[in-house]
Amino acid sequence: MGLLEHKLPENVFFTKLDQLTMRWGLRNSLWYMLFATACCAIELMQTGMSRYDFDRFGMIPRATPRQSDLMIVAGTVTYKMALRIKRLYGQMPEPKYVISMGSCANCGGGFVHSYSVLNGVDKIIPVDVYVPGCPPRPEALMEGCMKLMEKIDQEPRLVRSAR
Amino acid sequence: MVTTRSTLRTQEMLLNMGPHHPSTHGVLRLILRLDGEVVEEVFPDIGYLHRGIEKIGESLTYKQFIPYTDRVEYLASMNVNHLYCMAVEKLAGIEVPERAEYIRVIMTELNRIISHIIGCGALAMDLGAFTPFLYGVVEREKVNDLFEMTCGQRLTYNYMRIGGVSQDLPEGFVEKTYAFLEEMERRWDEINRLITENEIFVQRLADVAVLTEADALSYNITGPNLRASGVDWDLRRDMPYSVYDRFDFDVPIGKGERGTVGDCYDRYLMRVRETYESLKIVRQALDGLPEGEVQAKVSKVFKPPKGEVYMRAENPRGEMAVYIESDGSTKPSRIKFKTPSFNSLGVFNKICRGQMLSDLVAVIGSFDIVLPEVDR
Fold it and tell me: Nearest-CA distance from A12 to chain B in Å?
């Protein structure tokens, strides 16, 4: 490799395939699923819109789970919705990440005592980043996304082990 | 041989739309019985966001329940705040200071504007026009800033209190709101130029899913959806609550300008015109904003007398009502919300029969349904 690097001009750089696809490629094109349950959805929507503009992180909403890398669970998860969320998560291709947005998705929030609300989406799917707030500000959500990007930077392997 | 609908052999098919679908405005599931691409029957399946807010209300005091009213309808939190506080004030016979009433009207009308921005923008987005929504959100963010400087929250405000509002308007609010009103009027004209007279947009909406006057009345459709069907009824004008009787505004009525009275285009047009009227009301309220207190005297341990109260108010999606039963203790013994989107959803099966599947998206958008309001 050293020989080849020596021969080529300076604007060519060498890296490993897993670093390129996993770290650099994925962190800069986190496509999130356009999926919303409750109030936080409006803040999620506004984060993707004019002022806060998710696009500059390479984050584009996708309508189907099969094209998305990231699921942002925005809002209360009821028992009736929980099974659907689990199924949607199952339909996403690996590698996949989950951000739990807002108190309701984190732990049940204000509805923790309700008879129909699941106390935390992490009871059914694994969560990478929790963003607190009711609802969190767009800045908070973006901070959460950047934390997730940091996490992706530290991923050791190309393919994640099943979890 | 020419294949027409009569010669083509089609098969009935059951299709699920939602609960995860980008244009169902939340977690609505529609079970559709289709004949080819024509909708035969629509069964709305609701309850994916049933959070039991009414039941939670029974274990909280009257004042503690106010934050939950924000979450009944998050696109018009101020309006629900206002409704609930008015109901409790009516129950306990509390007089609200005049300044507080004016502030409440300013807030609810600003909230109506940003709710209609989402309503019209989301409808356009569902039909494939992304730009109006982006432009609309620019204005929505300005109102969010106004709300934030008043009460510290961008979405769920918890601003109104029983007997007034939590705090007076901050410094610079009035000037900023005047500036917003001017910008908003220009921006709304711009958005109208983009979509309202756009022939493609009109063709997608005109004559689709016509809701007749008789149907609208028998299904208890309210608000802009009722007015689109040609019924001249607005609670703010006909049964004024708060200080709405002091303002001069028009109530737009559906006339079937590009199609039939009560089609999707009329419903959309009502929201567009109502936004102008709301701008007018906010301007008048700012002009006549009196000085004085913003909070009436309410005892710390608040116990309204025994009895029941039913209060309604004109919300962006129609008439919302709250029923509160008091047993004389600090907690209500029953809270019940009557919500407009629930009724709108009820009429779907009636008016969507014979429509194309792709028009269903326009119908959902034109009724401006929001799901937490349906499920509570």
Answer: 39
Q: A135, B137: Cβ pair inside 8 Å? A: no
Q: Is the peptide bond before A156 cis (omega within 30 degrees of 0)?
A: no
CA B218 to chain centre: 20
Strand partners, A129: A99
Q: What is the CATH number of domain B12-374?
A: 1.10.645.10
- Block means of pLDDT (10 residues each) for chain A, 163 residues, are 66 69 77 83 86 86 86 88 89 87 87 88 90 89 90 70 50
Can you tell me the distance from the alpha carbon of B123 to that of B137, in angstroms, rounded to the nearest whole number? 14
- Alpha carbon distance B67, B133 (integer Å): 28
- B50–A51 CB contact, under 8 Å: no
Biggest CA–CA distance in chain A, Å, is 69
Residue A58 gets which letter from DSSP? T
DSSP state of B293: -
pTM for the complete prediction? 0.87
Domain ranges of chain B: 12-374
B-chain residues within 8 Å CB-CB of A37?
26-27, 48-49
Using alpha carbons, select from A38, A119, A122 the residue that is nearest to residue B49. A38
Predicted complex ipTM: 0.82
